[in-house]
Design a protein that fits this description.
Radius of gyration: 16 Å
Strand order of the largest sheet: 2-5-1-6-7
Strand content: 15-25%
CATH class: Alpha Beta
CATH superfamily: P-loop containing nucleotide triphosphate hydrolases
CATH architecture: 3-Layer(aba) Sandwich
Number of strands: 7
Shape: globular
Number of domains: 1
CATH topology: Rossmann fold
Helix content: 40-55%
Length: about 170
Amino acid sequence: MIICITGTPGTGKTTLSKKIATSLNFEYIDANYIIDKYNLKEEFDKDMDSYVVDTNKLEKAILREIICIKKEATNSFKKSNFIIDSHMSHHFSKKHIDLCIVCTCELKTLKERLQHRKYKKTKIQDNLNVEIFETCLIEAKENGHKIKIFRNIDNSKNLIKEIKEMFKL
């Protein structure tokens, strides 16, 4: 099983991903690690103050990692269920993703988190706009994903319980 956790940067994806992975004994996959490992950064976008990453190449690299982990799992204690942590994972094909969890966050909290990360003002505003217009949620719906929304104020224990019931874990 593969669950992706997506949402605007700063909404709590990594914290939630690690909690779910630990609680359900899933393998945690950090897309940023995969981007670095497979050298997937393309040109630098000065306006967004970040590198451009082709989501198709990222998806293929993550699927390669999953296949390798699954092969190792037959001969070790590796896990065969996965959590993908990435603000781009809702762009992945629905045929590979069993559940897409979209993290959301109150705007004031999100702004504070992005400021703490020392994002430029324009990047903060762009990310706030992404959150205001629910871009990740809308794109996940457009891609046909089975979606669960997680609001940053929600209790992760309830979400984990729902996942267990949903997938009979």
